[in-house]
Specification:
The complex is a heterodimer of chains A (349) and B (230). Chain A is mostly helical. Chain A is 80% helix and 0% strand. Chain A has twelve helices and no strands. Chain A is flat, with a radius of gyration of 25 Å. Chain B is of the alpha+beta class. Chain B has one domain. In chain B, 24% of the residues lie in helices and 29% in strands. In chain B, strands 4-3-5-6 form a four-stranded antiparallel beta sheet. In chain B, strands 1-8-9 form a three-stranded antiparallel beta sheet. The chains are: A mainly alpha (349), B alpha+beta (230).
Chain lengths: 349, 230
Amino acid sequence: MTNRQGAQRRVDRIQAFRDELADLEREQVLTLPPDDRARVLAHHAALIAVLSREFDVDVAAGQRRLSIGMRLASAFGALALGASVFLFFYRFWVDLTTAAQVAILLVAPLVGLVGMAIAANRERTLYVTGVLGVMTVATFVLDLNALGQIFNLMPSPNAFLAWGAFAMVLAYTFRLRWLLAIGLAGLALWVSASMVVWSSGPAWWSVFDRFETFLVPGVAILLLGGRLQDEEFAPTWRLVGWFVVFLSLFVLSVEDQSLLPWRRATVQFVYQVGGMAVTAAAITAGVHRQWGETVSLGALFFAAFLITRLADWWWDWMPSYLFFLVIGLLAVGLIAVFRQLRTRMEARP
Amino acid sequence: MTRGLVAAGAIVALANGLALAAAAYNRSSVLERVELTEAELPVGYGYTAAAPTELRFNWLMGVDFRTPPFSEAQLRAVGFDLPAATSSAPKDEMPLAREVVVAVDASGVARQQWLQGARAHATGMVVPPASRLVVIDMGRDMASVLAAHPDSSHTLVLHGMVQPQTSIGADGVWVWRGSLTTLLPNAVHVPRDARVVLTQRRPPDNQPRYVVTLCVGRRGEPWIESVRPR
């Protein structure tokens, strides 16, 4: 067992096994011999003790609820702490010399790194480490932005490479999925913006008018994420990859700017059909490979594509109550389709 | 963990080092030094009254107030791939804005031309613009624009974003013209010691309160050398 998620899954399976065994004994279907029963119980107790000590897993339902509360509390605490630090410096920032400002900007992310290292050594759950990680990445973003303002520098897309690489290094050093998502998003933005620059086209921030460029890093992230054996991080890779691809297709299906040399209406139609086909394919692939995040995100964007199309076709001439009735009926239809899919999965050996 | 921390620290150090090196390289040689007033560099929009931290450029779009300053030939020369604009202007998407290098006249001559043209062609009363900065030219790179405008004490050569647009020409046929959407950067940071001058009371005649010595370096990035009361 190498990570907390794996340990938690094992503990959950043990708990489910115990509950089911108790039910089977009560229903007089199965009764383990006392020796076997004692051996299994002792093995599980020892295993839970080890996992609890090494990974701080939640053993009881009450603990899990408390853990969620701790997570929320630590997130709110971090936000308040971050706001406090930011407002403190904002209050005195203009009174500082340029040298002092540059020194503070450079040191802030480094202090964050030290804080993360200390927190990671003191806790096994990594709640505080994760919160400090997000704050550390935010200070690095602020650092380069503020340097650009102080010295009137030309904005560069390479800042996204620095931010993305920084978040990725922290994600893999401390095993933090939030930072992995931030890092992948930063690198995707850098690749897309660089493609705009290399094509000798418009300024790099026109990347948001060239959403096709996001398809390249999106697909690359998906391909890498699909091959990863890392069961803790692979879902995050796939989630970010699909999100970038779906969002790009969605924006291209409603916006005017595109690289395709066709009429606006034709381009939008291509991306509308393509978007629905890709989301449907993603749901199918997710069901087959048991990628929960892919199925959920695919369903969300499939619904977004569908509702956008329906609103575009019908909203103007259909009474609003009828429009929402049709949407509701479609939702019921989708539920029926998903139920059938689930039944087929259950029937599969 | 140690290797990861070292790598993360190295990324922070490298990124900051590159940004500071770029700033140092830019300021290692002054290509232009121009004196401007509050009219050309008013206090930025998002300032606190106690301590304005940036001044924004206030400029006029070319000497002819009726049309955007850049011609189709100039647009093509800086790399815009424009479809031919004929009697039917393109209906679908417009080309996206590009980053170019622009020359901005600060001598007052271009402003005078603008004023004469406006008085000759405008129907109503013409209010003289406060700023002397007038966009007069553009090019693909710093060297060519600097060579074309060698007066380094009266012309600013800066980066900017140019947007092509269709416009009706004198013969009623659609033509491409280009306008400057923003200078890059559009505002200049004010060093701490220079800020006190910016907060003095405005005179009753509403004249500019300060004079700024603005420098532009090797990378075309400006900075404030000094600010003094006018």
